[in-house]
Amino acid sequence: MDKVKAVIEDAGVYKIGDLFTKKPYGLKINETDAIVVTAKAKGGDRVVTRTFYFCLKPDGTFYEESIARNGSRARRRRLASFLRHYKIAEDVDSYNIKKRIGEWKGVSVDVIPIEKDGIIYVP
Fold it and tell me: Can you give the residue ranges of every domain in the chain?
């Protein structure tokens, strides 16, 4: 799969209840927040969004590890991998997402094109 360079245009933290009237199937009780990242591919008009589900702590950070042994752990690790891979945060455990999410705009990311849409690459 070929990757295309893109730039983050918008990123925000939302409560699950603000995005959906009913929690989507598969999300657990310990996943209360979501980060929605929107990126635009360079040299084209392709706009891609990616949503990361997690639980935001009151101090703006999140736990990478989860006591659950299901998709919840994988979703948190995917968010941590995203932050490390694109060098947004080196120390994920103390990174204040709530306070610093505005700094994500302009960060270069890789997008994997899929038909007319695509997905932001996370290793």
Answer: 4-120
